[in-house]
Design goal:
Layout (H helix, E strand, L loop, with lengths): L3 E6 L4 H10 L1 H4 L3 E4 L1 H11 L3 E3 L7 H10 L5 E5 L9 H13 L4 E2 L2 H8 L29
Parallel strand pairs: 1-2, 1-4, 2-3, 4-5
Length: 147
């Protein structure tokens, strides 16, 4: 079962993401790939795989990926963000990480966690991450069902 995987990297982390993606190219080729602007262009060129590209992160790409997560279209997020470099679009970065957490999407923020996710036997199975019920009715007791 192919996953819909978003790949995002801040400028200082792009080379690290490219190296990781090259190493995992054969596995990534079995899935549908998405990425923000420059990262997507680099991945498509280096891997020779199709990548659905959104806008650059600072001009809305992070929010576009977040919207696709909320819609249930992106089911995994690999986001090599740079915790040591201030980002002008830091609120968008935090919003993307928050929306991924809200919708119970597996997320990797570094090589170690990405390695564990990409090599998990669940990746190639029919495993579906359980999305919370966030409809108004589910909140009648003050908490979402399944949350």
């Amino acid at each position: 079962m192919p996953r819909h995987i978003a790949l995002v990297a801040h400028d200082n982390m792009k080379v690290e993401l490219l190296r990781w993606a090259e190493f995992n190219r054969d596995t990534l080729a079995e899935h549908v790939l998405y990425a923000t602007g420059t990262t997507g262009t680099m991945l498509e060129f280096e891997l020779g795989l199709p990548v659905h590209r959104f806008l650059s992160g600072p001009v809305g790409g992070d929010q576009q990926i977040g919207a696709k997560i909320a819609e249930g279209q992106i089911t995994m997020l690999i986001f090599f963000w740079d915790p040591l470099e201030p980002q002008p679009h830091d609120p968008d970065v935090k919003a993307l990480l928050r929306i991924g957490t809200v919708w119970n999407v597996p997320m990797a923020c570094n090589v170690a966690s990405a390695d564990l996710m990409i090599s998990s036997p669940l990746l190639g199975s029919d495993y579906e991450n359980r999305r919370p019920d966030l409809t108004p009715r589910a909140w009648e007791d003050g908490r979402p069902a399944g949350g």
